[in-house]
Queue: 4 jobs
Job 1
Amino acid sequence: MLLAERLVQIFGFRFVNQEVPIDVAPEDNPTNEPVPDVIVLKRELSHFPSGNPRPEDLRLVVEIADSSLTFDLTTKAVLYARAGIDEYWVLDVARRRLLVHRDAKASGYASISAYGEHESVAPLAAPQAEFRVADAFPA
């Protein structure tokens, strides 16, 4: 919830959504309809009345990982990269860190960086906006 609230501050309420299904690469769509914990859209969700947002509609996809960490870092990361989603964040709750995936390739993300709770990162779509990892966790 705290991470989504901070993303709303950065991108605006109408562009940040929780638990919304998205489309992935055409070859994966018939069997996969992931529902990320948080997505940041390029257009408001109301622009998608008859379908899911597609990869080109997304600025950022976020998963909050507790028991799902391995699945989020493997299966979902490859699925999102193959779809060409520019930036994928995984909040690792147990280790209180943020794993930032960038540079999508067909086989996965070429760049993966870990940020500890005392560090900050800016989303690609808002390079002027610092996100402090500690802000994702209760004080």
Job 2
Amino acid sequence: MLIYSIKDIPIGSEFKTVVFFSNGFEFDGFRVIAKAIWKDPHLEAGWKGYKYGLQFVHILEEDRRKLLNLLGSTLLSEGAVRKNT
């Protein structure tokens, strides 16, 4: 997962985080333990921080299903996944 942060997180650090997403007209989310696996400086007008690549180290099975469902529906809506007919 890609995130932006103003915090300087050391590569290899593990931390708890919550991933929020829209589910129709409501918000949903799940908790994970993530690990920072890469970092790049990121500069925008009026904002200075970092871009991080995160790896999920631990995710509950119920939350894993939410993530797979979210990714599957996103890919289908973008036409990236074709159903076999």
Job 3
Amino acid sequence: MSARIAITGAASGIGAAAAKRLSARGASVVGLDVNGSDEIVECDVRDQESVDRAVAEAIERLGGGIDVLINNAGVGFSQSAGAAPDEKALAVLDINLIGPWRVTAAALPALRSSRGRVVNVSSGLAHLALPFAPAYCMSKRGLVAYSDALRLEHGDAITVTTVYPGYIKTPIHDSSNADGVSLDGMVPEEPLSAAAETLVRAALGTPTRDLATTRQGAIGYALARRAPRRLMDALTLRTIRRQVRGGSFDDSEMAREYVGRMR
């Protein structure tokens, strides 16, 4: 029997690419997304009732069960860590961190019944924080903790994998680019295909606790986890100063005061 897979954030970016590859591998895939369509179940991961309805419909479309849940939905609005969290900051935390919790809770009885898998899509920024992305970095680091807690509580019946994509040019970055705080040049860029293929591996391959989406990412994250935090801060600040000298943040109102201090 083919693997029965539900994936959130399936209308674009990594989710759409992964869903296409999983289907090509013979899996039965149902996408969930706030932008629903005939093929994708409408699901707002900020609303538990919407989540419950969407997960129930996905399970029905999959023939009454589910083998793999991929929590991929996410947003990437920018903020300043020194300003009070606004609605966009709270949306990042709600969608990226609490959303996977809501969806997993709704799917958990079916996943335990099938002895299935949960795949949580975190980020390389779970290991390395950057300025003007506090909510995003917090949400992705927190998602790792949720994966660990879920594994401890339900590892008798399911496996839990955390995936760490790097910087991939998808629509999730449109907002930060518009705010003038792009990640271009801050962190290495990775191809969309690598992230999609890693989700296929997480869903269909040998169960694994953690997966980076490239070999370079795996090495970098391993070093980031083991390096002294003061060293990581120093290296990050050196990169930021280089970006400031190159004028990367000159068009950002949010970063204006910060850029002045850095110069």
Job 4
Amino acid sequence: MKLQLTINGAEDEIEILAPAPACRFRWGGVERAANVEMAEPGVYSVLLEGRSYDARVERSARALVVVIDGYRFEIEVRDPRRWSRKGRGRAGEGVETLVAPMPGKVVRVLVAAGDMVEAGQGILVVEAMKMQNELKASRAGRVAAMHAREGATVAAGEALATIE
């Protein structure tokens, strides 16, 4: 699966060949392997090319914020398979699609289609690598569609809910 990335404003692309924990990926034309384990919620232990890293990951309204060895990376991830002709617009406008940040299982659905939500409100919880990630609305609106069901297995980048 190829993903388009914006890392601190720079465009890039990564191809995921195998998911965690025994992750394989192609980045910059080079195939690499890494072992990725969740050390605690929001903290991942990564073994890459014989070096160990702790990656602290948080979800902001527009991107993932990853801190490794004191370096902060703001990463926007886009799955070209999910692109549409309708732009997402600026924050607070248009349609927002919540997608699974990584493969996992939907353990709780907190809202239903048609519900009104506020910015920052929890929409659903996905468990990945023994960590529960609550996905939240980045803006207020109405849940136009809930694609996820409790107990369902989801792939990285899979659309879970749509807010308009």
